[in-house]
Automatic annotation (TrEMBL), chains A, B:
InterPro entries: PfkB_dom, Ribokinase-like
Gene3D superfamilies reported in the protein's UniProt record: 3.40.1190.20
The name this protein goes by in its record: PfkB family carbohydrate kinase
CC terms in the record's Gene Ontology section: cytosol
A Gene Ontology molecular function term of the record: kinase activity
Database matches in SUPFAM superfamilies: Ribokinase-like (SSF53613)
Pfam families for the chain: PfkB (PF00294)
Origin: domain of life: Bacteria
Length: 312, 312
């Protein structure tokens, strides 16, 4: 079933030990959409400027992504400049030009109204809440956020969290949100804020899902967490968008399944890792544009092989 | 088959957010022996001082550990003082009194000569090499080391590494030893130094094994790494000895099996995680003295459940 994603479609200027790119297509909604598009139809709500060309749009439409919710505004698109050093586990932001994103007012096209899966990418929680309230009929809502919103927009964020099915954030963010260093205690605290399920991304160490009594609507009780591996990679060319690609693979798979079961959720975590591992192999969206479904299945099997006792 | 371990039997004075203990029984060889004792017979070579009582020895002998290789010397036993703060992912050493360990000359009792599995716990690589050379007939040698030996005793360490079947160290150590930030590249470099297999411990994120062409003597080729999870724990009382307990569970299981196969190696990685997860539940050796084989199997299944797609 279709996923509706609201978030940034932007340009990134990135420098890593493997090279540099200037104004390549990026943004959370872009990475998410491409990754999810291999599993399920995706519809995007975003705003771009006059520098967003037909060629940029084709990157999304070629993957079947519905772009009619991408609004064109006067001015330039959101532009992020950043660099990675050493082990590249943290981005250093050198510049954030919000441009047309500054006055972004998400509008939901009528054709998107029947979307059953909503993804609130990492944007102002006030905007996340506004989109959410316009989609009362969705079956599932998954969301992301970041340190900036946790620190300075906690009231608006709290409203979004109350109503989330899945919150997908990284280690540092969950510890910051809970103000607690222990991951399990932090996860419990975050689950008490509203999300039915919490997925914590650990970068090169994989991801952990924490479940509440409300994780599975069908009465399934799961109290154990679930850990999915990341693929050890000899070369990470550009980590930008890895988390959004994880989210896309994860949520795209979930949305493609008839029912949310523990097995489906676990498999989705693996597909998240798979799409994240592809994303970092090239700069920008390059790898996610060209990966094939066969390569995805092959890598899924590789993830199983490196983590399952009977895998070899 | 029997494991021979050489390493420290010591006293630890530890402070963590959960309390403090003074002069509790510790040391790498102690934690290793207790953890391994649930899988296979263990023989210890170490030196202790006059403060090591029959009661301390009984902690080991009650678990069937052969202590005739523990030499008594005049003076006090090795004593480590340390503390953990915050997320407790790093120990802060407040004092290291080598005492009788300063002049330790490992001697191998005749009764130990037929040991087929040797574990070189984290001690001076010159001593590790000396013990190794006296045990030419062993089937397998597994070793540990730490930043201090990597930095200041690299020549002696290089000699030990050349001849190791398995090197078991943590993330920071492998990156330091290889002088390389990327884990895969660092692992490749360390494998080129000699160890047939490298197991990297990631603390709360589990562990990864990297295999070389020489990992399995029987012609089995494995180029994929293997990742074992750690159990997310709401309470870590005392992380001291977690790595040694991992090594004990891992190597104890390996030594208990008739043959080294990829499946045996994977299972050993899981048992390593299991024993590490018990070790941190109480101060010092308390938990590893009292755990039962049933609890170990139960937790092994839990590790499988939290990491396997079909686990729930």
């Amino acid at each position: 079933m279709s996923i509706l994603v609201v978030g940034s479609v932007a340009f990134d200027s990135i420098e890593t030990p493997h090279g540099a790119v200037d104004h390549c297509l990026g943004g959370a909604a872009t990475h998410f959409s491409l990754a999810a598009s291999y599993f399920t139809p995706v519809r995007v709500i975003a705003v771009v400027g006059e520098d967003f060309t037909a060629q940029h749009e084709a990157v999304l439409t070629k993957r079947g992504v519905d772009t009619q919710g991408i609004e064109r505004a006067k001015g330039l698109s959101f532009h992020w400049t950043g660099s990675y050093e050493g082990n590249m586990d943290e981005a250093k932001t050198l510049g954030t030009d919000l441009n047309v994103f500054q006055t972004f007012e998400p509008k939901i096209p009528d054709a998107y109204a029947d979307s059953k899966f909503l993804f609130l990418a990492n944007i102002d929680p006030a905007l996340q809440a506004r989109v959410r309230s316009q989609m009362p009929q969705v079956r599932m809502v998954c969301g992301d956020t970041m340190n900036y919103w946790i620190a300075d927009h906690s009231e608006n964020l709290a409203k979004v969290l109350r109503d989330l099915d899945v919150l997908l954030i990284n280690d540092g963010e969950v510890r910051m949100l809970a103000d607690e260093r222990n991951l399990v205690l932090a996860a419990e605290k975050v689950l008490s804020m509203g999300p039915k399920t919490l997925v914590v991304k650990h970068g090169e160490y994989g991801a952990t899902a924490f479940f509440s009594d409300r994780s599975f609507g069908n009465g399934t009780k799961i109290s154990r967490p679930f850990r999915a591996p990341a693929l050890p990679l000899a070369e990470v060319v550009d980590p930008t968008g890895a988390g959004d690609s994880f989210a896309g693979g994860f949520y795209g798979y979930l949305a493609s399944q008839p029912e949310l079961t523990p097995a489906v959720f676990r498999t989705a975590m693996f597909y998240g890792g798979v799409m994240g591992s592809f994303a970092v192999e090239r700069f920008g969206t390059e790898r996610l544009q060209s990966v094939t479904r066969e390569e995805i299945e092959e890598r899924f099997n590789l993830f199983k092989e490196i983590s399952h006792l009977e895998g070899a």
